[in-house]
Specification:
The complex is a heterodimer of chains A (465) and B (177).
Chain A: E1 3-8, E2 11-16, H1 21-27, E3 51-54, E4 61-62, E5 73-75, H2 79-92, H3 110-119, E6 137-140, E7 143-145, H4 155-164, E8 169-172, E9 179-182, H5 196-200, E10 206-208, E11 221-226, E12 235-242, E13 248-255, H6 268-272, E14 287-288, E15 291-292, H7 295-309, E16 313-317, H8 323-335, E17 340-341, H9 368-372, H10 378-387, E18 390-394, E19 404-408, E20 417-420, E21 429-432, E22 438-441, H11 454-464
Chain B: H1 13-17, H2 19-38, E1 65-66, H3 81-85, E2 91-97, E3 105-113, H4 122-126, E4 132-133, E5 150-151, H5 153-158
Antiparallel strand pairs in B: 1-4, 2-3, 3-5
Classes of the chains: A alpha/beta (465), B alpha+beta (177).
The structure holds iron/sulfur cluster (4 copies) and FE2/S2 (inorganic) cluster.
One iron/sulfur cluster (SF4) binds next to helix 3 of chain A.
Chain lengths: 465, 177
């Protein structure tokens, strides 16, 4: 498409001819209140909130259903268009309960933001006259619906219908009584992607049952990261909050737009996987024989055991470790002539993959193994394990029957030596997804008592030897 | 740099003689002394804490309390507005689902660290529900240990408004607990 020039509030912009005007305005940082349009869902034109003034047109037009043409002149701030926006917002809010104090959306709510931007009117509706609907409907899949707060933008229904194809959600009834509800009696399933409707919903009508009431969003810090739930490596935001007298806790994962990898969404399993990396879910002190020991005691034990086992040592690496950790581990094993394998039994889940985002390969960085020369030969690994007297297990879930030393993120129910290593949320690194895309992630969580990442621990170990 | 010359005081003859001021001061001291011992009931200071002040206005910011709805249940909806406004960050709230039909949300934990609190009253201003007030008329807060100054939801709900005579701290004889 060839670029054309348009004027917005006396500012000149260049945009591809025929592109969606609203998207062009938003991309250029021009604020246009809107509910129903979403880049991933396309134009629906039902909310009428995105009105702009176009030179030469008699009436205000919706920017989402207007295509860019050469020489267009657009006004989004004139008194007349502000008055239009104000009355549309007033209409949207006519039956709205405005229970922001107990609404999880407060702080990231389009209604709140637009009210401050274009509203600021006195309500003409008495609260007693508002239409009442269901306040707390558990739709299933950790999604809670508040029908009163809904602005009927149909983002959620379009998601289940056009993106997932299940059509679980519908808008029932008409006029004042229209409300979102589930079509199927079993509730919202959306094939494991249901919680994306929570992000899509511009207001507090759909909220996450998992996040519900745990934290107000304005306290949360959002940092970009990568989901390690499967080999796709979806881009996410980690929303966390360092407690005043406690640890830095993760409250939720949200999808981050990455067109080449995950687009606008993530799967529910990945979204909820934050629970494995926050609070007490991870191992924080070394353990031996069921009791906590210090790191120096643990490393001493490690060296004793290593010396006692002579040449019968085999190392297993998790294929989810970052490239940095795998490189350090490979070099360590080469230095001490320890055979290293990157095979993890059980890390392929034939039931997990689908034709949207989820992949059967549940390891985040398997593509790095051949590049780093780490063996993926399972029969060779089995032979080595049969002959081994000690296995150094670097967060690998393969069941092993010989004595092991675990370098692990999560506590394991064993009396063997366990040494904690930092989860990916607490270190920076890079992973290579199933399609060969190298992606970097940064450290987001600062623990009160940080656990070292594997590569740091290995240099400590080398220093002691 | 512009500066102003401020004239030094105390240079007059009377001031430099020193004695007139001394006599003036001592006469005030002795005047009050004899006035007080002649009528001890009229002494304007209180023998606190045996005698409690009775002239604290209802706008005084004392110990916080959490208020009740008409049905006696907690008014707070755990919206965190107070905790957000609090400059000392001394309000610690954990919210839960509320299932008694009153509302959807309420605090499971509502702790105020009274040692960190600066008694600014912002929490009261911020509350959209009139759920927190500082009108308990409790102005002296005593405890034996630091952690006892962290008061919880149950305690805050028990504290009552201080400006009916029977519940003011003065009427209770200064008791905190
Ligand atoms: S949806 Fe927005 S405006 Fe409505 S109650 Fe929730 S935060 Fe408030
Ligand atoms: S529930 Fe949310 S996303 Fe769905 S129609 Fe209502 S406001 Fe839109
Ligand atoms: S009085 Fe001020 S410092 Fe004390 S709890 Fe309220 S807001 Fe915080
Ligand atoms: S006391 Fe008021 S401001 Fe604080 S959480 Fe409760 S309702 Fe909100
Ligand atoms: S965003 Fe244009 S009509 Fe809804």
């Amino acid at each position: 498409m060839n670029n054309v020039t348009i004027t917005v509030n006396a500012q000149t912009l260049s945009a591809p001819e025929g592109s969606i005007l609203l998207q062009v305005l938003l991309d250029n940082g021009v604020s246009v209140p809107h509910f129903c349009y979403h880049e991933a869902l396309g134009v629906d034109g039902n909310c009428r909130m995105c009105m702009v003034e176009i030179e030469g047109q008699k009436r205000p037009q919706i920017a989402c259903n207007t295509r860019v043409k050469e020489g267009m002149s657009i006004r989004t701030l004139s008194d007349s268009i502000m008055a239009v926006k104000r009355s549309i917002l007033e209409l949207e809010l006519i039956n709205h309960p405005v229970d922001c104090p107990i609404c999880d959306q407060a702080g990231e709510c389009s209604l709140q933001n637009y009210y401050m931007e274009v509203g600021l009117y006195e309500s003409r509706i008495d609260r007693a006259d508002k239409v009442r609907k269901a306040k707390k409907v558990d739709l299933g899949s950790h999604v809670i619906l508040d029908q009163e707060r809904c602005v009927l933008c149909a983002r959620c229904t379009r998601f289940t219908e056009n993106i997932i194809g299940t059509g679980d959600l519908v808008i029932a009834n008409r006029g004042n009584h229209a409300c979102v509800t589930t079509f199927e009696p079993q509730g919202l399933k959306a094939d494991g992607y249901a919680m994306n409707v929570v992000d899509l919903c511009p207001v507090g009508a759909l909220t996450s049952g998992d996040f519900r009431f745990h934290q107000r969003v304005w306290f949360l810090k959002s940092d970009p990261s990568l989901c390690h739930g499967c080999a796709r490596g979806c881009s996410i935001f980690i929303d966390h909050y360092p407690q005043k007298y406690g640890d830095d806790l993760i409250y939720r994962y949200r999808p981050r737009v990455e067109r080449e990898v995950n687009g606008f969404f993530i799967c529910d399993e990945g979204r909820l996987s934050y629970k494995n990396h926050t609070g007490d879910a991870t191992l924080t002190t070394p353990r031996y024989s069921g009791t906590a020991i210090t790191l120096s005691e643990a490393l001493e034990l490690y060296h004793q055991k290593l010396a006692a086992s002579g040449s019968g040592v085999v190392a297993l690496a998790s294929p989810s470790l970052s490239c940095e950790n795998l490189t350090a581990l490979r070099d360590y094993c080469l230095q001490y002539a320890i055979p290293l394998f990157g095979v993890e039994r059980g890390s392929f889940d034939e039931t997990f993959g689908d034709d949207f985002l989820r992949l059967n390969d549940r390891a985040a960085n398997r593509s790095a193994l051949p590049l780093l020369g780490i063996s993926e030969d399972e029969s060779e690994m089995n032979a080595a394990l049969c002959a081994a007297s000690l296995v150094l297990n670097f967060d690998n879930q393969t069941p092993v029957s010989v004595d092991q030393i675990h370098f692990c993120v999560h506590p394991i129910d064993t009396r063997e030596l366990q040494i904690p290593i930092a989860p990916y949320t607490e270190q920076s690194g890079s992973i290579i997804n199933a399609f060969g895309k190298v992606q970097k992630f940064a450290s987001t969580i600062r623990r009160r008592h940080p656990v070292p990442p594997l590569h740091e621990l290995l240099s400590t170990i080398k220093g002691l030897a | 740099m512009a500066f102003t010359v401020v004239p030094r005081h105390g240079n007059t003859l009377k001031e430099r003689m020193y004695l007139p001021s001394l006599i003036g001061g001592l006469s005030t001291t002795f005047g009050t002394f004899f006035k007080n011992i002649s009528d001890t009931q009229a002494i304007p200071t209180l023998e606190y804490p045996e005698i409690m002040p009775t002239d604290i206005t209802s706008r005084y910011r004392g110990h916080h309390r959490l208020t009740h709805r008409d049905d006696g249940s907690i008014r707070c909806v755990a919206c965190f507005m107070c905790a957000t406004a609090c400059p000392a960050q001394c309000i610690f709230i954990e919210a839960v689902e509320r299932n008694d039909g009153c509302d959807e949300k309420m605090p499971e934990r509502f702790d105020i660290d009274l040692l960190e609190c600066v008694f600014c009253g912002y929490c009261v201003e911020a509350c959209p529900c009139d759920a927190i007030r500082m009108d308990s008329n409790i102005f002296s807060i005593v405890a034996k240990e630091r952690r006892d100054f962290v008061v919880g939801k149950e305690y805050l709900l028990r504290v009552r408004g201080g400006y009916e005579p029977e519940t003011s701290q003065a009427a209770l004889g200064g008791e905190h607990e």
